[in-house]
Amino acid sequence: DGGSHDDVKNLLWSVILSAIKCCLLLFFPAAQPITSKLDDGWWAYKDVVQGSFVPVPSFWGLVNSAWNLCAIGKRQSPIDIETSHMIFDPYLTPLRLNTGGHKMGGTMYNTGKHVSLRPDKAHLVNISGGPLGYSYRLEEVRVHFGSEDSQGSEHLLNGQGFPGEVQLIHYNQDLYTNYSEAAKSPHGIAVVSIFIKLSENSNAFLNRMLNRDTITRINYKHDAFLLMGLNIADLSPDTTRYITYEGSITIPPCYETSTWILINKPVYVTQMQMHSLRLLSQNEPYKIFLSMSDNTRPAQPLLQRCIRTNINFSKQGRDCPNNRALRPQYRGNSQGTERGSGGFVSA
User: Fold this and answer.
1) Are residues 54 and 121 located together in one domain of the fold?
2) Is residue 339 domain-resident?
3) What is the DSSP letter of 57?
4) Contact 244, 263 (CB under 8 A)
C-alpha cells in the first residue's frame, strides 16, 4: 500500500544520505566543524598533505557565509601595485608615529600561519596623519615570507614579489574599543606595509625578532616568547614616501575596512634570518613538519580603486593637478635604493 511504499522510500533516502555523510567524513574529516562548530582558524594558505581538507585562499569565501567577501568583495587585498596606475596626491602628508617616548614590550608567537608580535597593553603605539583621518593603535606586527627569495610578499610591485613583507596592523582607537570591533567597521583598520629584502646587515627591529636566540623559541605552533625594550621607530625606513589604497584584511573574513600604506623603501634581513623563518613549522612538534613559508594570499583585482602616492614622479618636480589621473612613465627600482625621495618607485 501507499504507506509501506513511503516507508521504503524514506528508508532509501535515509540510507543514501547516511552514505553521502560517511563519504564526506571519510574524504574531508576536517570539514566537520563547518556543520557543528565553525572554527575561525579553519583556513590555510596552501594545501595540507595529510589527507584532510582545509580551505586554501580560492575556497575561503565558499566554505563559510561569514567569509563571503573573500570571494565576492570588490575592495580586496593584497593587490599588484602597477606604478603606471598610481596618482600623485600632493596633499598626502607624512605619517606620524607616537610612542609616548617609550620603548615597548611584546610577545612573539608562532600562530601556525604567521610570525606575530603583539605589543603589551602598557605601552601604546599610535599612528595618524597621511591618508588617515583618525588615530590608529598598533595591534600586531605580522611577518609574511616565501620559500624562495622571489616570493613571500603579499603585495606585488609591477608583478614582482619580494622575499617577505612586514605588516603593522592598527585599529581605529578614536571610534572603536578594540581590534575585533574595528575590523568589521568603516575606517576600522590601517596597515603599514614594508617589503623585506635581503642584505648583509639586518634591520635593528627585525634583528631582535629574527636573531637565532629568539626565532628558535617559536619553532612550533603555539610557541611564544616575550621581548622587551623594542623601539618600533627602528622598523620604519628613513623615508616619508608611500603608496596608499583602500582594501581589506588579507585573512578571513576579508573585511573591506583597511587603509593600506605601503612604504616606498624596504627593510633588510640577512639570508640566515630568512632561512630561520623557513624552518618554522605550521604544526605542533608532535605533528609532521610543514614550513610556514609562502603564507601569502594571492593578489586580488584592483577593479575601480585608486592607488595614490606622495612620491613626486615628475622629472621637473612639478606637482600634478590634484584631480587629474596621470599615467607617467615609472620604472620599478629593483635595487630598492632611495634616491632623493624615491625608493622602489622613482622618476
Assistant:
1) no
2) no
3) G
4) no
Reduce the DSSP state of residue 89 to 3 states and report it: coil
Cβ–Cβ under 8 Å, residues 326 and 317: no
Q: Cα torsion at 76, 80, 83, 86 (round to 10°)?
A: 0
pLDDT in tens, 195-224: 999 999 999 999 999 999 999 999 999 999
Give the Cα separation of 128 and 177 in Å (integer).
Answer: 17
Name the β-bridge partners of 87. Answer: 308
* Residue 103 φ/ψ, nearest 5 degrees: -80, 160
Flag whether the pTM goes above 0.70: yes
Backbone φ and ψ for 309, nearest 5 degrees, come out as -150, 155
The distance of Cα 161 from the centroid of its chain, to the nearest Å, equals: 14
Cell of residue 278, nine digits = 623557513
Q: Residue 46's domain spans which residues?
A: 2-67
Considering the domain boundaries, does residue 344 fall inside one? no
Specify the pairing of strand 242-247 against strand 258-263.
antiparallel
pLDDT tens, residue by residue, 293-305: 999 999 999 999 9
- The verdict on whether 245 is a catalytic residue reads no
- The active-site residue, picked from 176, 242, 255, 330, is 176
199: its cell numbers = 642584505
pLDDT tens, residue by residue, 101-148: 899 999 999 999 999 999 998 888 999 999 999 999 999 999 999 999
How many whole angstroms separate alpha carbon 321 and alpha carbon 318?
A: 9
